[in-house]
Amino acid sequence: MPALSVESVSKRYGTDTALDAVSVTFPENLVTAVIGPSGCGKSTLLKLCNGLVRPDRGTVRVFGRPLDYRHLAATRRRLGYAVQGNGLFPHLSAGDNITLLARLAGWDEADIAARVQELLQLSHLQPAQLAQYPHELSGGQQQRVGLCRAMMLRPEVLLLDEPFAAIDPITRADIHQQMLQLHAAEPVTTVLVTHDMREALLLADHLVIMGDGRVAGSHDKAALLARHGDAEPEALLHTLLQEASP
Ligand code: ADP
Ligand code: MG
Question: What Cα–Cα distance (Å) separates residue 157 from each residue in 18, 76, 81, 164, 174?
Fold first, then answer.
């Protein structure tokens, strides 16, 4: 049973169709990149998955059950979420940002400290950085804190909306490696929204191509590379979007 799928979901904002009968199943414990041009509905799809947005039609299925909008808090504890520009609380230290949800969930201090230690090691953050406020950290460090916060409760699903988009290329290469290590250490069903095909091919096992509110294709990366391995990433994305258009 997949941890996460959406079935024929549609979402409109006024007359603007953000998603039009989209169906996707996210493979268990793998990284799926959702990739497509700006405005094609990627963020809306991700927000549907954790109930931040409700579909007009269709079903979001999380852990085998239709998402229960009356009890979102319990489900959201099992879904980590991190967004571009980190979304950290500016008035909380990095450490408090990371541990807030665990405190709200009633974890005891020893468990919180142990989990923070694990996350520091996995993310290559320094213990001293926990005392700092987001504005005192670099963009890359903030993004790592955001990832640690999303992973704190050991979620079964990780939803990442362009988490690395605002980071300089050198730091991004560094964080990509850490993301790969993190996923190897704690493989969870991960949805990575990105508009960067190079990033998608580096980090994901599976690629969902989106164009204009629709899924234009769903590809296993190994199969894709077997067919198009020599293509330049952006050209490949273009080809896949073209192939799918009616
Ligand atoms: P992406 O993440 O791929 O850039 P989005 O899911 O953010 O795309 O947006 C898809 C479409 O829905 C866009 O046309 C966008 O303007 C519109 N949209 C998204 N969120 C809202 C909102 N809260 N109110 C009105 N329109 C929205
Ligand atoms: Mg977006």
Answer: 23, 10, 9, 18, 23
